[in-house]
Write a structure and sequence with these properties.
This protein is of the alpha/beta class. The protein has two domains: 102 residues, 3-Layer(aba) Sandwich (Rossmann fold); 107 residues, Formyl transferase, N-terminal domain (Rossmann fold, 3-Layer(aba) Sandwich). The chain is built from six helices and ten strands. Helix 1 packs parallel to helix 6 and helix 5 packs across helix 6. The protein binds 5-O-phosphono-beta-D-ribofuranosylamine (GRF).
């Protein structure tokens, strides 16, 4: 049975595209049943339409609280038949209620090697710190921003002449490989969260992704 996934976006949607492309393979164990944006007219919604995936967009301006906005999102997601959510450049904080409702059924991709460099301006932070490696992380979502059990990470070198943009580009390339890989592991039922750490069964890690060792 394929896992039914809703993808939440706010913009460009290049990670959404990577997931759409992965799902085109009939052997891929997940299917995107909804793309939901908190912004109208963004490129990600176009990508979904081109791929014939149902879309919805919601503006927080039509709601009086974060909780009521998120409750409406939850309803739309449930009505779509989705039982799992991928955040892909979704730029709004989620309420604790939403995170609790979808606990261990909600993942995010972040362009750093968490727990380093949370929040915004991630690549500026990495360059400022002078790290030699950066990368990206797929993690289960918890109420605190950019925290939660790590499913998979990919590492990229930081080069001497890197700018935030050049580093972002190199990391993004890995994001597009990592997100489908993480979703595949989860959809295959090979991921378990235990004591807030992710255990991966039958791990066969490709060279670009450093997955957590089996417990
Ligand atoms: C990505 O770098 C992702 O890691 C971060 O936001 C960016 C979204 O890019 N959470 P896109 O919309 O997927 O192109």
């Amino acid at each position: 049975m394929t896992m039914k996934v809703a993808v939440l976006i706010s913009g460009r949607g290049s990670n959404l595209q990577a997931l759409i492309d992965a799902c085109k393979d009939e052997a891929f164990p997940a299917e995107i049943v909804l793309v939901l944006s908190n912004k109208d007219g963004v490129q990600g919604l176009e990508r979904a339409k081109v791929a014939d995936i149902p879309t919805a967009s919601l503006s927080h301006k039509d709601f009086d609280s974060r909780e009521s906005f998120d409750a409406e999102m939850s309803e739309i997601i449930t009505a779509s038949g989705a039982d799992f959510i991928c955040l892909a450049g979704y730029m709004r904080l989620l309420s604790d209620d939403f995170v609790r409702t979808w606990r261990d059924k909600l993942i995010n991709i972040h362009p750093s090697l968490l727990p380093m460099f949370k929040g915004l301006h991630v690549h500026e932070q990495a360059l400022e710190a002078g790290v030699r490696f950066s990368g990206c992380t797929v993690h289960f979502v918890r109420p605190a921003m950019d925290e939660g059990p790590i499913v998979a990470q990919a590492v990229v070198p930081v080069l001497a002449n890197d700018t935030p943009d050049s580093l972002a580009e190199r990391v993004l390339e890995q994001e597009h490989a990592l997100y489908p890989l993480a979703l595949k592991l989860i959809a295959e039922g090979r991921i378990r969260v235990s004591a807030e750490r992710v255990l991966v069964e039958d791990q066969q890690a490709p060279s670009t992704a450093l997955l957590n060792p089996e417990g």
